[in-house]
């Protein structure tokens, strides 16, 4: 790696990339600004090419664009080899970004396998990239190597991306002359360029702007789906135009389903990814049609909430002024104090207003209200008129729906032949086995379903109705995501056997969330769950208060060891009968999960003690695979400072960890434990989000101050939630913490709970003044609880 000064104006700091060329991070010694230097080996053949690249960059510098990387300088230098031969390097100085698009998506998916960009982010990216390349076309420059690696992230808050490596492109002087050198990365070449490449032709007649449009269209597919075409797929598809046409059509359809609120997104992709270059738009045409037809605008969902309705005096004259009639969100929470007659009139008014809407997505939220078989009628009416829905969410928990009310809803839902995502939150609604057995079978015709969430907890349902749930799930062979909550019903471990049988019938299922909490699963039930999850990528098991003992954990661990695909695992097992022996079994299998990137373990209120904590923390420490997200909760487990030895170690060894949540509430952790955390946080400088709960531990001022000193070393910290309730600290401790805020230059959010400590009114006034001082100089959202109030 090159460091030091090869040019008196720049100092090389580190290497960023090494492919055909070497790319370095450097510092401009005059301005003290960091920059990026691309270094190219120059020979007689490449000198002219390098000069041409500089000319193109200088032209772009004369006509700048906010989404094209800025060219700053260029220079040559010579280096003498060991054979006393001089070799020449050409250097291009550009502004320095954070990472490229390919690396950014990969890092996001490592921490969250289900990561997707938000709709507004997709729309903004599409528009800015098209405008950037339209600008290049206006000044007669074609990029010719559009790919994710050549799109650089400059701001990860608002996702500012810029195009780079434009110098590789071509300046178009004669529009009629279409003979161009074949270039670009094979995976992102347009079909006409790829064909010439396969025939080993160095020149071909093609329109470089339109080939760039196709390349950018493939990048757009990656951005929208976060999945790349493989090299093998590429060869198979591009050698058969019909296969390629069908593939691109399916991808456009997928993007439209993922982002239904982006106007014209499928149309734009069709214009960009037309196999025929004659039919394909160039960037100028794309910019024009986007402006004329307002394509790529995000349609906001029509949101109607209870405050809006309560402001209406005369419901008979009420008219909804809504532009987006495809996506409707009815947030009716806050109407709990309404009588049945008032609620019925409100709902009937809404039903009348939306009767002609062509809804694609519908979400209704009416919780903790007086919804019953009478007042549910308007909601049933809305559903009967929304037969083209693709997504439906009904959040109706804690009402009085009853068996007949549920039957009315399912009769309406069963007709929705295009429905792919369904959420039914009907917990605590006075249901019985009769209502379940009569209603759920009606939905078995929805075989196209891809995502299903059923929450029927707290209805005191018996085992007699369990088969209805699993029969319904088994009837949906296309399910990819299942979330089933039967918490606190009169059921038992047979649930796990039924789930195990059902999962085998769902070949596409890769995400499972199960909440069988407060149901006596015992050891046998936990073992069957372990057998159920072997083919999953994402699994969440909520089993608090389920009477699970060590033997159950041992048997579950055997099933877990077969989970070769698991990337995200959540085991919430608090308030069971697990001891250090169960922790040892679980600890032995965790290092075997080679693809795991996100882990949640909650063993709070189990008698695992120091040794149990050590087994689990040691397992995390010994993992060969890097974790990105970790939640480790051991509240009230009789743990002392001694138990945190391996917590300290995994903070050091898990170098890719970005987000961590540690809950050590109500243990016997003191100053020694804080010294261990001080050492751990001192090494884990890459952490960005920290959630740390230490309530009801005898830390004292020394312990709190030691902890703050360790946290101060987290230079990348963006969000900190710290709960220190009843830790025998004083106002001096919080003063130390506030003084350390200056060391967190990236911090955006700070939440500190310091209730029930030895603070008085003087401390309160002092802290209030310090907060005002800090917030006047730093843009940080600060929440601090000291005596009995919250200050912001």
Q: Could you walk me through the main structural features you see in this protein, from its secondary elements to its overall organization?
A:
The chain has 792 residues and is of the alpha/beta class. It has five domains: 4-95, Phosphorylase Kinase, domain 1; 99-293, Transferase(Phosphotransferase) domain 1 (Transferase(Phosphotransferase), domain 1); 300-491, Leucine-rich repeat, LRR (right-handed beta-alpha superhelix) (Alpha-Beta Horseshoe), CATH 3.80.10; 495-618, Alpha-Beta Horseshoe (Leucine-rich repeat, LRR (right-handed beta-alpha superhelix)); 640-792, Alpha-Beta Horseshoe (Leucine-rich repeat, LRR (right-handed beta-alpha superhelix)), CATH 3.80.10. Helix content is 37%, strand content 20%. The chain has 25 helices and 31 strands. The protein has an 18-stranded mixed beta sheet. A six-stranded antiparallel beta sheet has the order 1-2-3-4-6-5, with helices on one face. The radius of gyration is 30 Å and the shape is globular. The two termini are 48 Å apart. The model is unreliable at 787-792 (pLDDT under 50).
């Amino acid at each position: 790696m090159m460091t030091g000064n090869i040019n008196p104006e720049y100092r090389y700091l580190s290497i960023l990339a090494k492919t055909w060329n070497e790319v370095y991070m450097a510092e401009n010694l005059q301005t003290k600004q960091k920059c990026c230097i691309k270094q190219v080996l120059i020979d007689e053949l490449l000198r002219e090419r390098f000069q041409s690249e500089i000319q193109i960059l200088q032209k772009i510098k004369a006509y700048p664009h906010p989404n094209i990387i800025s060219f700053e300088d260029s220079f040559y230098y010579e280096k003498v080899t060991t054979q006393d031969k001089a070799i020449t390097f050409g250097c291009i100085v550009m502004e320095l970004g954070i990472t490229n698009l390919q690396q950014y998506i990969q890092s996001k998916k490592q921490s969250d396998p289900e990561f997707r960009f938000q709709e507004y982010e997709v729309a903004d990216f599409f528009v800015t990239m098209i405008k950037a390349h339209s600008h290049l076309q206006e000044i007669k420059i074609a990029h010719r190597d559009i790919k994710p690696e050549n799109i650089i992230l400059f701001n990860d808050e608002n996702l500012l991306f810029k195009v780079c490596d434009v110098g590789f492109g071509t300046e178009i002087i004669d529009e009629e002359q279409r003979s161009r050198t074949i270039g670009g990365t094979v995976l992102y070449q347009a079909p006409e360029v790829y064909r010439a490449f396969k025939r080993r032709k160095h020149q071909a007649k093609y329109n470089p702007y339109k080939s760039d449009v196709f390349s950018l269209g493939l990048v757009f597919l990656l951005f929208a789906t976060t999945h790349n075409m493989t090299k093998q797929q590429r060869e198979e598809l591009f050698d058969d135009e019909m296969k390629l046409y069908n593939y691109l059509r399916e991808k456009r359809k997928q993007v439209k389903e993922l982002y239904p609120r982006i106007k014209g997104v499928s149309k734009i992709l069709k214009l960009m990814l037309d196999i025929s270059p004659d039919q394909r738009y160039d960037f100028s045409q794309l910019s024009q049609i986007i402006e004329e037809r307002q394509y790529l605008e995000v349609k906001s969902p029509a949101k109607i909430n209870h405050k809006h309705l309560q402001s209406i005096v005369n419901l008979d004259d009420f008219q909804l002024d809504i532009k987006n009639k495809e996506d409707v969100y009815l947030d009716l929470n806050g109407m709990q104090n309404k009588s049945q007659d008032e609620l019925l009139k409100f709902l009937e008014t809404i039903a009348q207003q939306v009767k002609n809407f062509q809804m694609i997505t519908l979400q209704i939220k009416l919780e903790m209200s007086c919804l019953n078989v009478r007042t549910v009628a308007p909601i049933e009416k809305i559903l009967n008129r929304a037969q083209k829905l693709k997504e439906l969410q009904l959040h109706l928990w804690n009402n009085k729906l009853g068996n007949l009310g549920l039957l009315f809803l399912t009769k309406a839902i069963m007709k929705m032949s295009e429905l792919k995502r369904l959420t039914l939150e009907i917990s605590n609604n006075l249901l019985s086995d009769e209502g379940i057995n009569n209603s759920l079978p009606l939905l078995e015709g929805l075989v196209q379903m891809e995502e299903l969430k059923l929450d029927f907890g707290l209805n005191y349902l018996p085992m007699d109705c369990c088969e209805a749930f699993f029969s319904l799930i088994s009837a949906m062979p296309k399910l990819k995501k299942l979330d089933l909550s039967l918490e606190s019903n009169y059921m038992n471990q047979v649930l796990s056997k039924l789930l195990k049988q059902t999962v085998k019938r769902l070949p596409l299922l890769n995400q499972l969330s199960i909440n069988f909490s407060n149901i006596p699963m015992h050891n046998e039930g936990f073992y069957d769950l372990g057998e159920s999850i072997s083919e999953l990528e994402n699994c969440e098991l909520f089993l608090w208060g389920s009477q699970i003992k060590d033997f159950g954990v041992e048997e579950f661990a055997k099933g877990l060891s077969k989970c070769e695909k698991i990337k995200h695992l959540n085991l919430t097992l608090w308030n069971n009968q697990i001891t250090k022996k169960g922790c040892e079994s679980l600890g032995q299998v965790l290092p075997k999960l080679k693809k795991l990137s996100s882990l949640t373990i909650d063993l709070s209120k189990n008698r695992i003690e120091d040794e149990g904590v050590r087994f689990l923390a040691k397992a995390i420490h010994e993992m060969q695979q890097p974790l990105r997200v970790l939640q480790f909760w051991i509240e009230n487990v009789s743990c002392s400072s001694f138990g945190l030895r391996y917590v300290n170690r995994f903070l050091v060894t898990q170098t890719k960890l970005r987000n961590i949540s540690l809950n050590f509430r109500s243990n016997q952790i003191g100053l020694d434990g804080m010294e261990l955390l001080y050492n751990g946080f001192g090494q884990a400088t890459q952490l960005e989000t920290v959630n740390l709960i230490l309530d009801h531990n005898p830390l004292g001022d020394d312990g709190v101050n030691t902890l703050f000193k360790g946290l101060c070393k987290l230079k990348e910290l963006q969000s900190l939630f710290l709960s220190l309730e009843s830790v025998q600290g004083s106002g001096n401790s919080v003063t130390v913490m506030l003084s350390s805020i200056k060391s967190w230059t990236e911090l955006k959010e700070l939440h500190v709970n310091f209730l029930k400590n030895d603070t008085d009114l003087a401390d309160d006034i002092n802290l209030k003044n310090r907060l005002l001082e800090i917030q006047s100089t730093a843009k940080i959202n600060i929440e601090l609880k000291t005596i009995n109030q919250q200050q912001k």
